[in-house]
Design brief:
β5, α5 and β6 form a beta-alpha-beta unit. This protein is about 45% helix and about 15% strand. It has a single domain (about 5-235), classed as NAD(P)-binding Rossmann-like Domain (Rossmann fold), CATH 3.40.50.720. The protein has a seven-stranded parallel β-sheet with strand order 3-2-1-4-5-6-7, sandwiched between helices. The protein has helices spanning about 15-25, 35-50, 65-80, 105-130, 150-170, 195, 210-220; strands at about 5-10, 30-35, 55-60, 85-90, 135-140, 175-185, 230-235. The protein has about 240 residues and is α/β, with parallel strands linked by helices. The longest helix has 29 residues, at about 105-130. NADP nicotinamide-adenine-dinucleotide phosphate binds near residues 13, 14, 63, 64 and 184.
Length: about 240
Amino acid sequence: MKPTAIITAASKGMGSATAHELAARGYNLVLMSRSADIHTFAETLADKTSVHDTSVHAVQGSVTDEQDLKRLVETAMDKFGRIDALVNNTGHPPKGKTLALSDNDWHTGFDLIFMSVIRLMRLVTPVMEQQQKGAIVNISSFAALEPSVERPVSSTMRAALANFTKLYAREYAHANIRMNSLLPGYVDSYNVTPETLATIPMGRVGTVEEVAKTIAFLLSDDAAFITGQNIIFDGGMTQRV
Ligand SMILES: NC(=O)c1ccc[n+]([C@@H]2O[C@H](COP(=O)([O-])OP(=O)(O)OC[C@H]3O[C@@H](n4cnc5c(N)ncnc54)[C@H](OP(=O)(O)O)[C@@H]3O)[C@@H](O)[C@H]2O)c1
């Protein structure tokens, strides 16, 4: 039986590269993003991967909307009857100086980065428990472990997600459900300045394809004993031991 994966924020960047990679590895896919781009992307991917007999379904909606998340999970269950893998990805949170950010900016970041994962896990976990199998990867940021002054909301909310990753992994390991977070430094879906580039020992940004391959590994049985980890993916940029 082909495995099924849900990927949120999948129309561009790391989400779309992960969709390509998982399709090539034989997953059926249910993809979400806010704009109609998700339909175009899903159609193009389905055409490209028809040789692998992959089914791709798109759900237009926001990870911050509980009803949209319900539709996403219902689509996966209606079309495929199971959810083997989930990639929790999202858009960019508000940026700004720590005390200049409004309450609304902080609440937006909390909903986008943290509550989106909690809400989707409430829906997906019973399915994975029933299957006695499931793997989840959250796309987070290096800022979860090394706070960035330019990104106070991202740094704070992603630190919370790093802790949730550990809590969830511990609580559901008995049901053979694994959760890990991938913490990218700079990736080619983002424009970096020459000054930022100079901080990366490898002298380059990562590629979305490299992100996708790492996620595919973490979702696979090759990573069956890896859970609750916050894995830095940054070309050697951060120095935390
Ligand atoms: N690129 C980097 O160097 C880097 C490094 C560390 C962390 N990150 C984080 O990783 C995540 C992905 O980054 P990326 O560079 O791949 O971004 P990207 O290329 O800008 O793509 C963002 C994706 O998120 C979707 N999206 C935005 N808001 C959404 C929402 N509320 N609900 C559902 N989908 C939503 C967008 O589609 P629609 O426009 O159709 O909604 C798009 O598909 C972001 O949270 C980013 O902050 C990025």
